[in-house]
Amino acid sequence: MRLCTGVWVPASVIISWTVVAVVGIGIESVTLPDVDISALGQIGLVGDFRGVSLYSYSGQQNSSIASTDSLLVDLPSNIVFDFDGSDGTINSMCAMGDSIYIGGNFTRIGDSQIHSVARINASTGDVSDLENGVLGNVNVAYCDLDHSLVYFGGSFTNNVAIWNVSSESWQAVPFGGLYGGPVNAIVERNGNIIFGGKFLGIGNSSSAASISASQGSQMQLVNMRTANISAQGSMSNHSYSNPRSAVCSNNISAADSTWLLEDGVPGVWTASFAYDIQPSRLRIRNADAGGRGTKTFRFVAHPINGIMNLTYTDPDTGATTHCDAFCPLQNITEAEFQDFEFVNVIGMDSFSLYLLDYYGSGAGLSEVQVYQEQIISYAIDAFNEPASCGVNNSEISRSNFTGDWKTTTVSGISYLSAANISGTQLRSTVVTFYPDISIAGNYTVLMYTPGCGADFSCAARGQVNITVSPRSNGPTTGTVLYQTNDFDKYDVIYEGYVDAISEMFRPVVTLSPVDSQTGNITVAAQQVQFVLTSTSGGLNGIFEYDSANFTTSLDSRDVAIQETAVNLAGMALDTEAEITALIVADSNLYVAGNFTGHGSIHNFFILSNESEISWAQGGLNGAIEAMVLSEDELSIIVGGDFSASANESLLIPGLSYVAQYSIQSATWKGLDNGLNSAVDNIVRVFLNLSGDTYSTLMFTGNFSEILADGVESAIDSPGYALWIESDSAWADRTTLTLPFIIGSLSASVMTHNGTYILAGNLSSQSLVTSSGVFVASGLDMKPMPFDFAQTDGAFAKQSQLSTSLLYSGAFCRNGSTQYSAVGGEFTVETQSASYRNFVVFNETDVTGGFLSSTFSESTAVLAVYNYDNASLIVGGDFAGSIGESKVNGIAIWDIKTQTFASRQPPELGGDSVQVNAITSRPDTTNIVVAGSYSTAGNITCQSLCVYDLALGSWTSVTGGISGDIYSVRFIDSDKLIVTGNMTTGDSITCYMAQYDFSSSSWSLLGSQSSELPGPVSVFLSASDSVSDALIAGVYAGNGSTYLMAYSSGTWVSFGNDLLEGTTIYDLEILELTSPAHRNSSIIPEGSILLVLGDLKFMQYGNVSAAFFDGDRWTPFMYSVKGDNSPGVIRSLFAEVANSVPSIYAATDEGHLKAGYVVLISLAISLAIMFMIIGTGLLVAYWRRRSQGYESFPSQLSDEQVAQQTLLPAQLFEHMSSVPAKY
């Protein structure tokens, strides 16, 4: 099963950060710095991301989506913790006590070599093997709690294995296993174990036809021609000294093909192979040279160096006799060939024949042949059966290939490999195997894959397509295998009937790389093996095992299959039936799969506890691939390749690849209107959504959308879908919060301590959003309420790949209503309009922005600035029309009217107009606009210009600079720090400069400017000077990022922990609720630096926001894009921001804060003014008394005077407010 999910979160929900609390698995929670953001109110973070999480546990990193499965822990924050990876797939898990048992197709978990089955300690996360494991693919693991047994089923030897938990060992399968096809499902009912799959019989059935090793026509001759033959003690006579004379000499007389030892001495004849063999028969022809020959010998297998136990037919008595260390050999005159059968068939890569006694003057041999029961076709054709070497078959196993294959030899074992292939090479790189099948019957076909760890090719290994053509008139079957196994493995690629070779047909297997893979791929091909299995009948895809009916002895072959109701139900199905899933509810057995049967059985039926079969309204019209019992146990939920009821008279809406069967009413219904294509699997997980835990079903398959249901429109859902059981609704149609999830999930299980263990290749984040998130005090996160789509793609509200680029934002307020505004590269569709790259919105609605019809797709908004809650100044790379006004690079939004201002700034001009930064000069209506342009209206203005909101006109900064300005910041009412990549009027390159409005002059700040290593993109100061500046930029030489602080008269770098590829977009100083670090020369005590961007650390991986306290780094936020690549946070904006923070900061010398100095000065000035005015009034009063008074007629009425009166509240209402920083 593969589940791919990427989910959209509704706007009205909030996710709160909580400390991780997970028992076991070695997960340690972390504590973030105690940041006080209450003074800032709500903050916004924008950038390029789809999912975001706070840093919450040690070892947390953005995980990539691998091609193989891992073991995962689902944390309360909906983040998954990857605690052990595998080199293959994990298909099933079950829990027993403190242990979790897993089954799959892998050769490694973590750093340990483990084959296909393993045990996990639920408290520690330690993984251990179960003795030597299982070679093959395990589909299902079932824990029998009552008997402390674990049943494994799949495609491997016998297809069933039983692990005894009490004895810590494998237990013999009492019924000998299941043959003819895989086991897919295991359940327990009434104390009996029920297996489902595509098998035909049990291993020790009385009707089983055992395949005898004496059937020589089915044996395969090992190719000795390509073996390395050596000997010790050879005769010095060159005519008899070559040990290879005893290889493939069946058509030559013994006298002409003899190898001899020196007179009177023992010797050794050895054959070594570049592949493993498993001999079952040894055939020897003795020497024929002057009465010489071998009388006794022994067979020693390597590398175990073990003496093999053999049997032979005693020529005198005709009885089968055993031998080991001293096996007799008849003289050539008594027998042409003598056969020896191996008692134990084991693997070996070489063997030696020790010649111990002799006839005549010395020992010797004329021919040695080794046979094995396995029908194997090797990718290296030289290893296949040799022609005309004692093989009587008209056909022999062989192979051929196309493409650039080379022989690779590792530890003495050779195979073919094709390295660094890509593109069209993937289609033409093929190995074709032609096995020698002389007996038709049921076979298990195995594909062997050499491990990638030994040849160091794991990084380049990928997937291969396998096809099997088993029958002359049957279809070709196909499967895809991963070749990322660290250690050697084999996979079952086919189970079923195979025709024997004829003049018109022979079975064929092909191996080729999946041609949709990207990059350079390495493929390996070793061998394919056909294993003839039992042809027993009596079963058809389902078997009920009652231990009372079987003994544990495998020597007995006379146990009949019990005619239980379950077994008989299987015989009522068609001959190609396959059971994919089993469920027991209220002692009733629910059976699903791909089958038809007697009556109206179609892919689903129910076997009651009273052995009655229910057709379930005739079932469904297509195969069922997955089935689960609902959380309330009142219904069965299925997924597969169906579209309606199999009963054509029943018109049931919504049965489109997913369906729900009510146990109580015995009826089918749809899940809304269903999906648009087939479902492969269903896995249940428990997600923490909106503060509660919800049982969620995760569907995976070949679908791309959730279908419209008449009320709701269709939802993009590429390969995944989430069904909330309690709401009976698809997750995207609820108001619940959802995490961001991407990747695949194959199995899940809850441990005894409540921890949820998952298996798959999954990556997740706590919150899904569209490149913007709001953070309140307590670090509570909520997404921005609208989904922003990139301008180069169609807007899709629920699509996981619907990402956006947000560069800047601002909060603003009109009375009691708060608004947010963001700028970037995106589109937003509403019912009434389409907006592009700039929108203003509240909690529920978009109130305005750039209309798509008036602004081109190539535009971008880079800066949004709130001036005095009156105007939003918008800057960037755009041009278009607002009403009757043409705008270029800058526009103004009226916060009061929630429309664009009727008067817009005259256009900026130049070859490439772009506004990067906007701020305002304190206590004025002057807006400073910085970027890259050459004119503003009709005046020349190089990259920095001032727009007066009151006058509606531009003013050029005298004696200016040219180039690109990236940031501007006032350090007091007159001094403006400007950074970027600039050139002065004297053609001097500078990266930081200061403009003084009081003197209308530029300065380069001495060494602070001259010592900078490259363009400065971000400037921050914690006081009213540049003496404690913090900057980020890029080196002029190589473009890599630097991070520096000005301390004690010099620039000090403190970004050494940041790796190459880091990009910094914003810096902010935040206050701590209590001092949490020692006072440093870079960051003062009680404060902490927040760095935003794409930050790369060796210890933490890719981080989007991190804290620095002057001594060490702590991650703050991780984020990812829609494709799970690392996300980027570009900027922070605050509800209560300060464009001139230094004015209100205390100096290092402990003097009064600058703000208080200003207020005191103002009070003194007012007192003096009142004294002067009072004196003047007294003088006027004295003059009126002495000279008389006559009123002057007014030209305005009292009403008109009142209308022009400026109330004190209006005069001073803005004195305490500060324009918000963009």
Structural summary, described in words:
The chain has 1222 residues and is mostly beta strands. The protein contains seven helices and 92 strands. Strand 35 (406-410) and strand 36 (413-421) form a beta hairpin. It is elongated and about 155 Å long. Residues 1-23, 205-217, 552-560, 790-803, 1139-1159 and 1188-1222 have low confidence and may be disordered.
Shape: elongated
Structural class of the helices, strands and pairings? mainly beta
Largest sheet: 7 strands, antiparallel
The percent range for helix content is under 10%
Write down the Rg. Answer: 41 Å
Mean pLDDT: 83
List low-pLDDT spans: 1-23, 205-217, 552-560, 790-803, 1139-1159, 1188-1222
Number of DSSP helical runs: 7
Strand arrangement in the largest pleated sheet: 1-88-89-90-91-3-62
Distance between termini?
47 Å
Protein name: Cortical protein marker for cell polarity-domain-containing protein
Organism: Lipomyces kononenkoae (Yeast)
